[in-house]
Specification:
- Essential subunit of the Sec protein translocation channel SecYEG. Clamps together the 2 halves of SecY. May contact the channel plug during translocation.
- It is a single-pass membrane protein.
- One of its GO terms (biological process) is protein secretion.
- It holds the Pfam family SecE.
- One of its GO terms (molecular function) is protein transmembrane transporter activity.
- The structure is a single chain.
- With about 60 residues, the chain is mainly alpha-helical.
- The chain has a domain of about 45 residues.
- About 80% of the residues lie in helices and about 0% in strands.
- It contains 2 helices and no strands.
- The chain starts with 5 loop residues before the first helix and ends with a helix.
Length: about 60
């Protein structure tokens, strides 16, 4: 692979960063809210699954003991 000098590297990095399309403040806010909502829903789902498994195991162990 060809080596580039530091000046060329910095120029290439600046050219690549100029191509980036940054999200707007509204897009960032909406995405953040959606992440929190999905995290909350996932936590509730796994809490309910945990309760169901715990109840099932306690019932199963209650039968055999």
């Amino acid at each position: 692979m060809a080596r580039t000098n530091p000046l060329q590297f910095v120029q290439q990095v600046r050219a690549e960063v100029a191509k980036v399309v940054w999200p707007t403040r509204r897009e960032v806010l909406l995405t953040t809210v959606m992440v929190f909502i999905m995290a909350t829903l996932t936590a509730i789902f796994f809490a309910l699954v945990d309760l169901a498994i715990r109840g099932g195991l306690q019932g199963l162990l209650g039968i055999f003991s």
